[in-house]
UniProtKB/TrEMBL annotation:
GO BP annotation list: organic phosphonate transport; transmembrane transport
Encoding gene, per UniProt annotation: phnD
Protein name: Phosphate-import protein PhnD
InterPro entries the UniProt entry points to: PhnD, Phosphnate-bd
Pfam family, one: Phosphonate-bd
Length: 305
């Protein structure tokens, strides 16, 4: 399949590096949000890196900063050209500079939706079955710039029950930031924290697989957890899947080639699409800023930027 894509791209992409108004790019840089260890992130995107190099005719580099803010700042500073952001990370980027990036594509789930959920979970042998059982216990978030790992649960969980706040010692005995989705999953699985939140899409009757896609599915695929050892204790309302974004100042032909490449990824190389989009899905579809207005407003109200 890779040879097929490379051959299709070679007829046009490798004639010369990507140009716009007489200016050629010399490299293309893709940022990958935190959520699993850096090497796994690099491995998941290696196929896209290869395809982008073929399509653009210049070296493509993958950057996997330690936290979400590393990707956000890279996009704002012009050192990262493309990324698949969570909705809150996109909102953070937009609020700091509305002209920095543009959302171009969004992941489509197996059911045709473009939404996912924040999932609260605990160990199955902990006796915790809901947030009612979490009082006085240690609760973990991922990253402050994560939509499902902080923003949405920090808004919706206090609505679950009077007295719940995100402050340590109020309802939860302690509230911790673990650093990312994978770190939260491992911390709960190891008993280092009592409960936490992560993300999942395609919430059918396949808990044992980590649902269709998301951080739980990636953890199962990596052999980090057995879902029979975990139990769901909370679920958010539907959250819009985060966008694939491109820097607005990129040459138009670079944008067009990368949009086409990512849009066709699932059809042309399902294995690559599985890795890039963290599990099963139907590929991608166009998206605009309007899809994320509510998340931008929620972030502005909750975090301020």
């Amino acid at each position: 399949m890779k040879k097929f894509i490379a051959a299709a791209l070679a007829t046009t992409a490798l004639v010369a590096p990507a140009f716009a108004d007489g200016h050629a790019i010399t490299e293309f840089r893709i940022g990958v949000l935190g959520g699993e260890n850096a090497q796994d992130r690099m491995n998941s995107y290696a196929c896209l890196q290869e395809y982008a190099t073929e399509a653009l005719g210049v070296e493509t580099k993958i950057f996997a900063p330690a936290d979400y803010n590393g990707v956000i700042q890279g996009l704002l500073g012009g050192t990262i050209d493309m990324a698949w952001l969570g909705a809150s990370a996109y909102a953070a980027t937009y609020l700091q500079d509305p002209e920095a990036v543009e959302p171009v594509l969004v992941k489509v789930n197996l059911d045709g939706s473009i939404g996912y959920h924040s999932i609260g979970f605990a160990r199955a042998d902990s006796g915790i079955t809901s947030l009612d059982d979490m009082q006085g216990k240690v609760f973990g978030f991922g990253d402050p710039n994560s939509t499902s790992g902080y923003l949405i649960p920090s808004i919706e969980i206090p609505q679950y029950k009077d007295g719940i706040t995100m402050e340590s010692g109020d309802y939860f005995g302690e509230v911790k930031f673990t650093g990312g989705h994978e770190q939260t999953i491992i911390a709960v699985n190891n008993g280092d924290i009592d409960g936490g939140v992560t993300w999942a899409a395609g919430l059918n009757d396949n808990w044992e697989d980590g649902y269709d896609s998301g951080a739980l599915r990636k953890a199962v695929d990596a052999g980090l957890v057995d879902m029979n050892d975990l139990v769901q204790i909370w679920k958010s309302a539907v959250i819009p899947e985060g966008p694939v974004v491109l820097r607005k100042t990129l040459p138009a032909d670079v944008k067009a080639k990368m949009i086409t490449l990512v849009d066709d990824l699932h059809e042309n190389d399902p294995e690559c699409g599985y890795g890039v989009f963290s599990g099963d899905g139907l590929g991608a579809q166009p998206v605009t800023h309007e899809t994320y207005i509510s998340i931008v407003e929620a972030r502005k109200a909750k975090i301020g930027g």
